[in-house]
Amino acid sequence: MIQAIVFLPLIGALIAGLLGRTIGHRPSEYITTGLLLVAAVLSRVVFLPVAFGGGLAGAVTDGHTAVVKVEIMRWIRVGDMDLRWTLRVDTLTAIMLVVVNTVSSPVHVYSIGYMADDPHRNRFFAYLSLFTFAMLMLVTADNFLQMFFGWEGVGLASYLLIGFWYTKPSANAAAMKAFVVNRVGDFGFATGIFGAFMVLGHIDFDGAFHAVPEASTATIRFLSWDLHAMTVVCLLLFMGAMGKSAQFLLHTGCRTPWKARPRCRR
Question: What is the pLDDT of residue 64?
Answer without folding.
Answer: 57
